[in-house]
Amino acid sequence: MKIKSYFFFGLFFITSIIFAQEKEISGTIIDEQGMPLPGVSIIIENTQTGTETDFDGNYSIKAKPENVLIFSFLGLKTVKQTVGKKTTINVSMISDNQLEEVVIVGFGKQSKRTVTDNIASLTSKDLNNIPISNLQGALTGKAAGVQIQQINGKVEGGVKMRIRGVSTISSSQEPLYVIDGMPLINDDESVSDAPMNPLISLNPNDIESIQILKDASSAAIYGARGTNGVVLITTKQGKSGKTKISVNSSYGWSEATNTVKFLNAEQYIELFTEASANSYGADDLWLTEPGGYFDDMANGLDWRTGEVDTDWTDYALVNGSVQDHSFSISGGDEKTVFYVSGAYNNTEGIVRGNSLERYSYRGNLDHKVSDKFRIGLNSSLSKTQISRIGTDNSFSTPLQAIAQSPLNPAYLDDGVTPNNESTIYYNFLMQEYNGSWDVNITRAIMNTFAQYDFTPDLSFRTEIGYDSNNQLDEYFAGSLTESASTNGYADATSIQSDKYNINNYFTYQKSFNTSNLEVVAGMSFEESSRKRQYVAGTGFPSDELQTVESASEITAGSSSRTKYNFLSYFSRATFSLYDKYLLKGSIRYDGSSRFGADNRYGIFPAASVGWILSEEDFLKNSNTVSSLKLRGSYGITGNAGIGNFASLGLYSGNAYNKTSSLSPSQLANSDLKWERTTQVDVGIDFGFLNNKITGEVDYYVKTTNDLLLNEPVPGTSGWSSITRNVGSMQNSGFEFVLNTTNVTTSNFTWNSSLNLSTLKNEVTKLPNGDIVAERNLVREGETISSFYLVEYAGVDPDNGDALFYTNTTNADGTLDKTKTNVYSDAERIVTGNPYPTLMAGFTNNLSYRNFDFSFTFQGEWGASIYNEGGKFQSGNARYEDNQTVDQMNRWQNPGDITDVPQARMYSTNGQQASTRYLEKSDFIRLRNLSLGYTIPRNVTQKFSVDRLRIYFTGVNLLTFTDYTGYDPESTYDNYGNSSIQKGIAFYSAPPAKTFTLGLNIDL
Which pTM was predicted? Predict the structure, then answer.
């Protein structure tokens, strides 16, 4: 017995010694999708000993059997594992919704949990699966209260981004874009009335996150330019660890989201023969007789036997394509991290002759010189080449080809030369084959910083940024185009825009026993300059020589230069007590060279408060309420988006009888001052069931005073307008965001995000009365740019006359709805507006094993569009233009009930401006969809590939709408962003529906 006791005691003693000794523990850490996690921290509990996983998720550490390993990674739940007898410990880490998310704010960062502002935050996951050429389009439907609309389907087309509505009339309506701390040039430099997207040269694949500052508390730190909201863009940075190489390559094809049906040759002949008979009598055969007008249109082809039947839409709208190829290299060590990328995009538009090609480079570097000193450089360079086409209001643009008759052949008998001999209007194909319009944009953006930490609590940061945007437009129209009379025409326009920005600020952070304090204070200086040169010439010896240098006569030339600057001082303080009572205040003192000397500076203060109720004792241990925060904010922002010298009286140099002279060109207004917007926001952030359900509810009121307006003045004064501070406007609305984790299992996850927002806009003060601009109206008590039209009343069933409501005012204040066929007897009324009153976005992300699937629906309701081209396209044969097929449902006999008047050629019958051509533009759109498959890692590792994903994406795949035009978002591109005229369509191209196949490769 003693021998046995000694034996077991000895065995136990030896085993204890063995287990007490350190041993090598290794393993692999993966995420919920089975992907390796680099950079996971592994620490032995209650010690300073630790390590990190490498790029492949592998680690190795020495530990004793009784040790506990702690695995932690930002955004994932911490895991603890006791070593025991194991030598291999593999861990799968899952997301932790309770961890604090960090958001970028002006001049700093802040925990989302303690943010008291309204900020919409998007990450690269929300953006990078959408194959589009502009970054704004990737945001569509993703943020409550944010409307993003590309004006039309041209690849370079201008983009409208409206954050909580329109807060100005004549001033800039675009938000301020800031990339890595550098305010971007966002001026449209189009040499025509059709705008271009100023940010088209940026590569969306380089973006790490976007924060949209919506309320005044978040935007007021940018003071004078915060009225329209601020978009903070953060580009991707490197991480310490193994160097990571990522490659993305995709190819896609595209087509128009919608086309409009026009008459074929047989229908055209029927309608116009009848229209001519109604106007001139059935015996007048000037259209159909041999040698008549139809014979002239057909240009020798036999229209009677159907030899010609041209579908001009097929020539105007074509199948497009898109290629997108990019790579990035990132990595670093504990001192230096880097990110380098290159990208190529080639987009052939759906509008014939329209294309874009872009090369881009980005290099980001962050170096830790010492424990107290950091420096960094963010830089990008891009080259963009665009083949442009004419504006919506030019017959050289393809979309106006639909005005041609189907009896017009597109080409002459040789099938090569465009027919311009018998077409009703100029044949746009002449410009495509004998002309060009090329735009080359070179853009360089750099922002360097240095940060010194005096103490753990106090740091100083200086940033120097530079944005250079150089654009060269070259236009040529050869001897066979509409410039044939001058034997060709060419012009060249060079525009150089430069912006310099300097930020210097201190940050002080201090934690006390029960409170936390952060104070930021600094200054900012910004200078922007612009130079423009223009030259034009005619008379070219050959169509192969297409630059102005070859012109026989220089017919025009000019040059100009301008500059403006801002000088600002700012401060912000945030304070929290007991980690649940939150307070924030900021102030900015802005000066701009654009305003009068007496009003050059403006003060823009803001404050916000928050209360984290879920930290109170009565909710702290709740199993239902995970987080609950009340917040409110108030602040004032400004708008300086006017001309550089709007306050000054200007003179222009010109020539009179070959003698130089000066002439006044602008009225002075020394009292011109800042447009100021006051905004109040109250909101609730909530989370339930361990934050499986989270969301936000907000209500805001934005009131803009001292509106900057190009106010018309009597023509007898010798001037057309003057810039003044006139009137007030208010926007208000609710915003609702709901994020849900619907399913989470080992193989399947499903997350959803819904956002809804309402918008009410009202002009609250307009001292000098109504401002009318063709179809639009600015009137006190109405939505800005409301439609102001005669009301269409249909067709008189007895005679086919178009009818209108008189809408004169009765004695009791009601409108007289008597019908009349005399247009001048009808009064115009406010009937709709161009802005949606309800917007929604619904995004779902699903994954099953190695498959991932996501989609976003977007919708807008309450807006209207007026089709200015309707009088030509749907005018019951008033003009010779081809007609939409609904015109076949015209009035023909007494008793017919229809809304299309009798066809009367060259005779007005309902083509006047009225609600006949006004439609609701409500829609729901499947904005984007993505389906991907990640090949199992045990397969790809054989080829030294960490990750290989194959995917399909689609953009604008489905649109549900009752709108009968090309597209409920496409509008006339000849009106500038600050114009009163809004919501007008005029031969406006629809957006592209795009299908893409691609590969993601990580090495």
Answer: 0.88
